[in-house]
Structures are given as structure tokens and as C-alpha cells.
Amino acid sequence: MKTCLFSLSLLTTLVAPAALAQAPNFDAISFESTEVAPGIHMVVGVGGFGGGNMAVIVGDRHVAMVDDSLQPLAPRLLDHATETAGRPIDFLVNTHVHGDHTGGNAHFAESGTVIFAHDNIRKRLLTDPAPAGGAGGLPVVTFADGVTFWLDDIEARVTHLPKAHTDGDAFIHFPAQNVIHTGDVAFHGLFPFIDLDNGGTVDGYIAGQEAILALADDDTKIIPGHGPLTDKAGITADLATLKAAQAAVGKLVAQGLDVDQVLAANPLAEFESYHWGFITTERMVRTLFRDATAGD
Fold first, then answer.
1. pTM of the full structure
2. What is the 3-state secondary structure (H, E, C) of the chain?
């Protein structure tokens, strides 16, 4: 899988996994916001696949966003975000490199938004800027371990998670509001996409979720990269599923089975409810097998 994850064909797979062969109808997609804590709004696409879950953070003087959906939806998203905030978006953080989270970068940058991202995101986008809407969408401020935004009474701590979903992941913690945006280090209720070709690893993904959970309590609201708003119990359940899936595939790998034999054994049958159009049970098995045999 190359950096430009959400090509038209792949996006069609996401939007309508088994039923459609045509391109997604972007005209049918809009956005809606829900204030999950004072000043923090979760933004989701409705009417079709509108990219990953986003956030608009509104302080007294400054406004920030987390992620910015797909390139074709950027003008509509910018209008919605500006309306939600009541004024322009000053800063935007990309949680990782994929085009359903960075696609609006160039359009937002043209409006004056300053794009922040991990060092590795900029490095990958320098090679292929298409996921960011073109060269104008390159991050202009990058960080290694993290960065903190002070939006008046809202502190937003951005922290890098090494080799998790990709090699450039970050999550955002709002300690006073008790909210966490995970980026794609959480696909709540779904098998996660662990992008091995862009630096992701299963162990790193597990470590990333554990780091996020260490900051959460029973009242924390967690915005996953995909899936509905959740909490500590929800991510704990997702993590337990991933660990069990890794162990089930790893057991068969240790017996010397090849990937076709592992697939035939159907080791993830009990987790079928996590199957979805992009990461099917088969694809999850293949990811876990490939990760377990890396370097063999």
C-alpha cells in the first residue's frame, strides 16, 4: 500500500464494500458537529464516507482542528468548520499521513490555516503530496515527540506514537476537558487498519492504545479515528480483541503454517463482528500474519 491510500478504487471499497462498483457520490456527503466537551466539537461525515473523525477546538481567541477529511470534500468541510467555530481555523494537526485525514490540507492552507504534523508525515508527503491535496498541503510546522497548543483555557497535548497505525501517528489529549482524539490508533468496534507499508506495526499499535488508555478514566470521552464516540471501556474492548487476534494468528505461525493454511483455519472467527468493508477478517489475518513473519 502506497502513501496515497485513498485512491478512487480503494475509496469505493471503503464506501460500499460489496455492493457498488461506481465512484462515491461526494455530492451526497455533508458534515455534522457534536460538542463533546466545552469548546471541543467532534466532526463526522454524513451521507457517505466523509473521511476519518475530526475535531474543531474553539478557544476565546484561536481555533484549531484535528484532521481534514478527503480532498474533494475540503471546501464543504472548511465552510462547516468555520461555521461551527464562528471564525477562521488558525491551526490544524494531521494525526497521520493518509488522505482521508490530510486531504483538505491544501485548501485549508490557502485560507490561512497553519498545518502541523509529525516529521515523518512531511517526509512522506514530500515524496507524494497527493494525499494532502498537492504541494500546498505540506505541513509547515513539524514535531518529533509532540507539541502543545494553548487555546486559552483549552490545553491540547499532541503526542507521537511510534510505529503504530503508521510511523507518523499522533493523538491529542485535552486534560482539562477529559477528551482524547486518537487518530487512527483506534477504529472503534472495527478491525484496525495497521499500515505496515507506511511504518505501522501490530506491537506498536497495541502500545499506542495502551498509552492512550493510561491517560483515560471512566469518564473520558474518546474520539476514535473511525467509529462512534467511545470511552475507556470501548477502547479497552478493542485492544483486547486485537491482542487476542494477534495471539491466535501467532499461534498458527509458530506451528509453521503458511498464510493460506492460516486463512483456512479461520483463527478470527470469534471476532467476525469486527469485520468491515475495508479490513475484512481475511485482510486482518493477512496483516497479522505478515507482521508476525516480518524479517523471516
1. 0.92
2. CCCCCCCHHHHHHHHCCCCCCCCCCHHHCEEEEEEEECCEEEEEEECCCCCCCEEEEECCCCEEEECCCCHHHHHHHHHHHHHHHCCCCCEEECCCCCHHHHCCHHHHHHCCCEEEEEHHHHHHHHHCCHHHCCHHHCCCEEECCEEEEEECCEEEEEEEECCCCCCCEEEEEECCCCEEECHHHCECCCCCCCCHHHCCCHHHHHHHHHHHHHCCCCCCEEECCECCCECHHHHHHHHHHHHHHHHHHHHHHHCCCCHHHHHHHCCCHHHHHHCCCCCCHHHHHHHHHHHHCCCC
